[in-house]
Amino acid sequence: MTERTHKTVEQAEQEGKYIRKVRSFVKREGRLTNAQARALELHWQTMGLDHHKNVIDPSAVFNNDNPVVLEIGFGMGKSLVEMAKNAPELNFIGIEVHKPGVGACIALAQEEGIKNLRVYEHDAIEILADCIPDASITTVQLFFPDPWHKKKHHKRRIVSPEFVETIRQKLKIGGVFHMATDWENYAECMLEDMQASAGYKNLSENNDFVPRPDSRPLTKFENRGQRLGHGVWDLQFQRVD
Ligand SMILES: C[S@@+](CC[C@H](N)C(=O)[O-])C[C@H]1O[C@@H](n2cnc3c(N)ncnc32)[C@H](O)[C@@H]1O
Q1: Beta sheet of 91-96, edge-to-edge order
Q2: Which residue lies with its CA nearest to atom 14 of ligand 1?
Q3: Could you tell me if the CB of 75 is within 6 A of ligand 1?
Q4: How remote is the CA of residue 147 from the centroid of ligand 1, in Å?
Q5: pLDDT digits over 45-102, tens only?
Q6: Which of 130, 134, 146, 208 is catalytic?
Q7: What is the pTM of this model?
Q8: Is the pLDDT of residue 176 over 70?
Q9: In angstroms, what is the span from residue 156 Cα to ligand 1's centroid?
Q10: How do residues 87-97 score in pLDDT, each as one tens digit?
Q11: Bridge partner list, 91
Q12: Between the CA of residue 101 and those of 87, 119, 238, what are the distances in Å?
């Protein structure tokens, strides 16, 4: 689980760790249910990955060379577990900062007997910088990231030119970055950042959004968006360089 190994940002930076100053989340200290706490206690050893252990070797983590799907901000993990269950030929790594969500995801994965899923409880930006090897991921998924509606908060949005370049580096050539959002302005900003970023090819026929792929289960936030009458925009870009 997350360990505080640095006292200050300056100290961490001196040690070569990446520490971000504007974060895409506000840490909600929601209470763990008994089931979530038990799942973390019993199964962290087998399903959890720790930030402080630095760069991972995915083949060693999963004991095979299957392609790796990385999901950022999986919430309670329901759709991630469903995807892992539907695709035993793939390995899945989930990153989420909200501890109850990580506990819920592990509990559900155990219930379903999932073996091809590992999770981090940490800021994805730091995990990408410190733990994920370059050119190691086949698909990166970012589904319904916090939209930070107000203009003054747009700097908190996880998608930025810097972020999409980091994702490109983590993808294998031919790998795909898949994003979905139900917030139109965020969808437009995502498209702008992706189109301005060299080394990606848009998989959309019209050079904008793609139809919702069947492989993406309905997520909790998408369900909520649908009830509120929101549209949904999916983007898929392939790393070509
Ligand atoms: C709006 S929710 C969407 C959850 C899920 N993907 C879904 O569609 O139901 C966004 C999630 O991203 C997580 N998150 C935000 N910034 C993050 C970061 N930098 N690293 C890891 N998780 C993050 C939040 O804790 C939250 O659970």
Answers
A1: 48-49, 117-121, 91-96, 68-72, 137-143, 171-181, 233-239, 200-202
A2: 73
A3: yes
A4: 10
A5: 999 999 998 999 999 999 999 999 999 999 999 999 999 999 999 999 999 999 999 9
A6: 146
A7: 0.92
A8: yes
A9: 12
A10: 999 999 999 99
A11: 68
A12: 21, 11, 29
3-state SS of 128-157 is HHHCCCCCCEEEEEEECCCCCCCHHHHHHC
Residues composing the chain: 241
Triad 148, 152, 156: Cα angle to 5°: 45
3 state DSSP class of 59: helix
Q: What pLDDT is attached to residue 111?
A: 98
Is residue 139 left, alpha or beta, with left meaning phi > 0 and alpha meaning psi from -120 to 50?
beta
CA of 138 relative to ligand 1 center, distance in Å: 20
| Coil/strand/helix, residue 166 | helix
Q: Maximum distance among all alpha carbons in the chain?
A: 49
The 3-state DSSP class for residue 213 equals: coil
Is 130 annotated in the active site? Answer: no
